[in-house]
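Hi support team,

I've been running sequence recovery on a batch of backbones for a student project. Most finish fine, but this one hangs at about 90% for roughly twenty minutes before it completes. I'm not sure whether the input is malformed or the queue is just slow. I've pasted the structure tokens below so you can try to reproduce it. Let me know if you need the job ID as well.

Thanks,
M.K.
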């Protein structure tokens, strides 16, 4: 019986004991994040927002209180600043006992408090420091004494990321407030040059409204939403990821419930940066989360003024819903791909590849297109490594990108160098790579790995089947495509496939229902492209 009629068991490429939690990759270490800021008893801003934000983004939050406020969603009634020596005692007590992976700094209040924080930072040198320089509310009210501005300027170079609103950006530069986005970016670059650090320029306060930062302990006042976009940008003078400016676009949410947005953004950036080690990847992960927190804020029904954002909107079990069980999502993907696998096995190209009768010009076309495809695919895998939520996943996708170029491209070059074939980009290859690149800029790690998975999974299953057919032929030396068949039946590739499946399934467990739907769609689209890719030589060779 032909091996093509003896399909591999669907569980062949699932990790052993995949339906048991012990088969999952080891969980990433939880970042320990210290927030140094004021307290908001209403829970929407300041330390309270910081701790919620840190937890929502996978960190363990700690807090050193710089100020106590009496406030609610309608405004601040009173502020009490404890002695700076007591703040120093808090900071020393934490750092004497607990490792700190990241620090977020918010409301500081006066020069003595700023000096205390600066002295502690110079002594401890934390790996990640995010400074939200709370100075002025959107309303124009000053929240930091002018006498303390010089002390704050001296603190800025100790930060890795500064997150001012537009009014604060102008004060730090002693310039008028930016009137448009281009001037805001220019001011961000000037502050980056002045301080030698990266600046997050936020578009929420530009004319047209938008999600403005909530009034409270970290001093950002709320505003109304508008229909236009809301970009943010990372700017520096050293070339972040080879660029001086990285702009991340975003939707503008029409809501008055934006209390604590600035606090939440800065503490989330500190937490995710401690996890992924990449500011752009951190912003691309944090921004969609914050967008959802604004969009779902009304569900909280807190206060009669500017309500807080919904930090835990993405945790479905809080609303009585649960994500899929371990292995359930991957099993559903595999079931959904069954028709595509049957279509691949029925192709003349695959049948000819199995028995060695495939015309060489078709195989040469296939390899030429695969070489082009792998170049784009390696970039997609590198992007997955950049935004992966754990070190293990980062290493896996980075190594896969490297293998993609080194091992596979070498096999193709060895064939293509001795066989004339067109090396121009084919229509199927272009469509497939464009689909993957679109997934890579979606901002969703889950969607990206789901789109990339069929090139592992379907190839592994087809390759295993073809290799069995090759062995059953009984004449390995006479088979013209033996090298290719051995490559895709390699156990290392099968193991990598099992790991890719596990990571995709884990990502689905962390995702919202809508994101899982997007993941499933991306996987189905890539599976269809796999069929078309195998069939392309018949049409275009």
């Amino acid at each position: 019986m032909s091996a093509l009629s003896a399909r591999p068991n669907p569980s062949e490429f699932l990790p052993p004991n995949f339906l048991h939690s012990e088969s999952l990759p080891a969980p990433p270490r939880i970042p320990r994040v210290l927030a140094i800021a004021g307290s908001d008893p209403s829970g929407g801003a300041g330390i309270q927002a910081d701790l919620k934000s840190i937890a929502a983004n996978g960190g363990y939050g700690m807090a050193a209180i710089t100020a106590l406020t009496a406030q609610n969603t309608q405004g601040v009634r009173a502020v009490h600043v404890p002695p700076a020596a007591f703040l120093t005692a808090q900071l020393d007590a934490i750092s004497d006992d607990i490792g700190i992976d990241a620090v977020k700094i918010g409301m500081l209040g006066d020069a003595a408090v700023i000096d205390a924080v600066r002295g502690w930072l110079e002594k401890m040198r934390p790996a990640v420091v995010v400074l939200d320089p709370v100075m002025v509310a959107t309303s124009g009210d000053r929240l930091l004494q002018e006498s303390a501005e010089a002390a704050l300027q001296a603190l800025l170079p100790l930060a890795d990321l500064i997150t001012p609103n537009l009014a604060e950006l102008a004060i730090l530069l002693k310039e008028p407030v930016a009137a448009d986005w281009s001037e805001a970016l220019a001011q961000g670059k000037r502050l980056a040059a002045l301080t030698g650090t990266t600046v997050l320029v936020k578009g929420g306060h530009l004319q047209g409204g938008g999600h403005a930062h909530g009034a409270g302990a970290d001093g950002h006042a709320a505003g109304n939403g508008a229909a236009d976009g809301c970009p943010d940008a990372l700017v520096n003078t050293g070339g972040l990821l080879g660029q001086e400016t990285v702009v991340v676009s975003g939707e503008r949410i029409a809501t008055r419930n934006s209390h604590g947005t600035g606090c939440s953004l800065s503490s989330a950036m500190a937490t995710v940066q401690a996890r992924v080690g990449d500011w752009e990847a951190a912003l691309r992960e944090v921004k969609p989360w914050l967008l959802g927190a604004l969009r779902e804020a009304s569900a909280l029904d807190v206060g009669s003024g500017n309500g807080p954002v919904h930090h835990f909107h993405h945790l479905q079990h809080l609303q009585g819903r649960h994500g899929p069980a371990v292995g359930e999502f991957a099993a559903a993907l595999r079931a959904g791909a069954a028709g595509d696998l049957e279509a691949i096995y029925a192709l003349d190209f695959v049948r000819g590849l199995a028995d060695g009768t495939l015309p060489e010009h078709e195989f040469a076309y296939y390899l030429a297109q695969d070489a082009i495809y792998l170049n784009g695919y390696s970039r997609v895998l590198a992007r997955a490594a950049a935004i992966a939520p754990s070190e293990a996943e980062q290493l896996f996708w980075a190594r896969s990108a490297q293998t993609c170029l080194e091992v596979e491209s070498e096999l193709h070059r060895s064939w293509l160098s001795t066989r004339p074939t067109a090396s121009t980009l084919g229509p199927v290859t272009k469509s497939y790579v464009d689909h993957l690149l679109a997934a890579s800029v979606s901002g969703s790690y889950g969607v990206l790995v789901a789109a990339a998975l069929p090139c592992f999974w379907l190839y592994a299953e087809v390759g295993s089947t073809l290799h069995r057919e090759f062995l059953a032929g009984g004449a390995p030396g006479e088979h013209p495509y033996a090298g290719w068949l051995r490559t895709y039946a390699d156990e290392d590739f099968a193991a990598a496939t099992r790991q890719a499946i596990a990571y995709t399934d884990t990502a689905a467990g962390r995702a919202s229902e809508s994101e899982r739907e997007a993941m499933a769609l991306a996987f189905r689209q890539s599976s269809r492209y796999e069929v078309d890719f195998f069939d392309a030589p018949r049409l275009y060779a």
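--
Follow-up from support: It reproduced on our side and the slowdown came from queue contention, not your input. The chain has a mean pLDDT of 82. No action needed from you.
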